[in-house]
Amino acid sequence: MSRRQRRPLRSLWSGLGRAAWISAGLLAVALGGLGVIVPGLPSTVFFLAAAWCFARSSERLERWVLGLPGVGPMVRDARAGLGMPRRTKASAITIMWTAIVVSAVIARDRTALVAVVVVLGLVGTACILFAVPTRERVLEQRATSGH
Hints:
Strand content: under 5%
Number of helices: 7
Oligomer: single chain
C-alpha cells in the first residue's frame, strides 16, 4: 500500500478517535449531570473526565465544560492540583452517608447488599479524605514553599 493510499485510513482513524473522545465526554457530562441530582453519585469526577476527553477532541466542548457555573471552577482547581475545599469535602461525605443510610434502611432485609453499600461508602470516604487534596492545605503548602 502506497503512502497516498494510507492517508485516507489515517484520516478515518483520526476522525473515529475524535468521535469516540467526544462521545465519551458527552457520556461523562450526562453522568455528571445525573450526579448533581442523585445523592451518592459523584459529579465532579465525571466532569473532570469530560474535560479530559474534550481536551483530546474538541476545544469548543472543553471550553464549554470549563465555563459551566459551579462545575468549571472545580475542574480548573482539580487540574491545577488544588483539590476540594474542606467544606465541600465535608458536604460530599455528609450527602454520601445520608444516601448510604437511606439505602441501608430501604434494603435492611438484604444484609449482603447493605454490607456492600457500607463498604463502598467507606472506600468513597477514604478516597475523599486521603486521595483528594484539601484546597486550603495545598494553598498553605504552596505559600510556604514559594510556588
